[in-house]
Structures are given as C-alpha cells and as structure tokens.
Amino acid sequence: MADDQVIMTTVFGPQAETIEKTFASFLKVANTELHVFVYNPELPRHRHPSLNYHLVKPDPDFTSVRRDALFRRWTLPDRLGAEFALVVDGTDAICLQPLGRFADLLRGGSVAGAPEWGPPVRIMGQGFTSAYLNAGVTFWHLPSSKEIRTEIELRGRAHYRGPFDDQTALNEVVHTRYFNKLTILPPQYNWRALYRKNFRSWHHNFRNWPRVDSLAGVQIYHNQHSVDAVLAAAAERSPEAKAALPALPQDKKPLSPSQLTWRRLAHRWLYS
Question: How far apart are CA 149 and CA 102, in angstroms?
Fold first, then answer.
C-alpha cells in the first residue's frame, strides 16, 4: 500500500479493455493507488502499468453482473487495507484537478458525496431528500462506514428494483439512518453538467440538463454524454483551479418600480 487512501472502480465486459481512458486520469492524485475490480473471466489483455487489477467472481444474488458491480463496489475496498477510499464510475468519471486528502474532504464524516442536479426526490424511510446523492463519486472512511456500506449491499441482495437501484439504496440508507455521518460535497467534486452541448433526458422528465462551457473549478467531471469532449479539452489545456467570478455592475441611482420588476424577472430567468 502506497498510502492510506485508494481510488477504485468496478468494470465488466469489453469496457475492461478501455478502462484507462477515463480512470487513469485519477493518477494525478498523489500518493494514492488505483484499483480496478474486473467482473470478467480473466483480466483484460491490455492493462495500464499504473493500475492494479483484480478479478471478481459475480454473485447471482444481485440478478445481474451490472448490479453486482454497482452494489459491491462499496464493500470491495475493504480488501485493500486502506483507511480512505474514493469509489468512482469507471467509464465516465474524469479527474481534472489533483485532489486533496480524502480525510480533509470527509471532514470527520464516514461518507461524502455531491447531490444529483435534479429536484428533491422521494425515498423510502426518511420520505424525501433535497440532497439526493449521485452514486458515481463517493468518498468513504472505510472503518467507520463499514456498517453503512454493508446495509446498502444487503438491500441490493434482498430485492431487485431495476438495473441502477444502487443509487436508490445508497440514499435510503444514508439519509434515513446515517445522515449524521454524511458530508455533502459541492458539485465540483461530481460535476454533472453537460460540457458545450445540450441534452434532454427522460430520467428527468425531458428537462434540459444543465450546460457549462468552461471546466474551470471542476475537480471531478462525471457525465457520459461529454466524456470525449472533456478529455480533449483537458488534454489541450488544463482547466483553471477555480472559475472566475465577474463583478456586478454598480447601480448609480435608485431604480424605478419597473426597473426593479425587470431586474427580478431577469434574475429568475437566468439564475433560478
């Protein structure tokens, strides 16, 4: 073990041969080993020399290899002997900036993650949450989160609710039983906005996904629809560590009632 923190992902099928396309971007995190858990009969023929590969035998309790890889990715890090782990989606999460110590990001919590970009979500147990976590980028203090991660896995074993119900179970368990051990991260650590493109998704009632034209300030980018564009942009020029914040123009005189109304409507249209 190079240090007390690791970064890991799970992968299966042909994507095991190309996992380095995105996952190798996390090599910029200093003193941190990267581990790939492979749900295939054998390790990929093409392996990146700086990644550590492990074979995993699928468990039929999860109905599909996909669900197995999604649920058990949170308990597999216990095999690595580290104290902290960052668990990421293997094929669409891209590290754009050297990350700080995971202990600092957790700030004493057992689990840390960034909310999904959509509206509040109904969940079993607590009822609803306005901080519905995206499961594709999560930070863990492994010793103190073992009970949390085990409960999430057991819900996946017990009952099938769809091919991506790992995120449902994560939010149910964390927001109902362990909210006092949760650290909410800003979206820069799981940036879900599209990069220089527009897209509507039925997952979000065909509303437009958020769009940005700059990667400044983004620590971890995570959106399958813009992977190639983000990789190309990062290869051409490293994004700035923080985005620029323009100054607001100074109001030089009192505003009329109509100007106040217009300002309020314009603000709602642009920023609400």
Answer: 17
Q: How far apart are CA 233 and CA 216, in angstroms?
A: 11
229: number of Cβ within 10 Å: 16
- Among residues 189, 186, 178, 9, the alpha carbon closest in space to that of 110 is found at 178
Domain of 182? 5-236
CATH number at residue 98: 3.90.550.10
CA distances for 74 relative to 7, 37, 55, 140, 146, angstroms:
11, 11, 16, 9, 9
- 183 within a domain of the structure (yes/no): yes
In a domain, 258, yes or no: no
Q: Is residue 180 part of a domain?
A: yes
Place of tokens 């095991």: 16
With a CB cutoff of 8 Å and minimum separation 6, the contacts of 89 are 9, 136, 137, 222
Using a 10 angstrom Cβ sphere, with 0-12 exposed, 13-18 middle and 19 or more buried, the burial of residue 152 is buried
| Model pLDDT for residues 157-197, shown as the tens digit of each residue | 999 999 999 999 999 999 999 999 999 999 999 999 999 99
178 lies in a domain?
yes
| Domain count across the chain | 1
The type of residue at 175 is H
Pair 192, 223: CB distance under 8 Å: yes
Q: Whole-angstrom Cα distance, residue 262 to residue 256?
A: 10
Residue 268 has a pLDDT of 93
pLDDT, mean of residues 59-87: 97
The candidate with the shortest Cα–Cα distance to 105, out of 19, 198, 184, is 184
159 CB burial (10 A radius; 0-12, 13-18, 19+) = exposed
pLDDT tens digits for range 222-257? 999 999 999 999 999 999 999 999 999 999 999 999
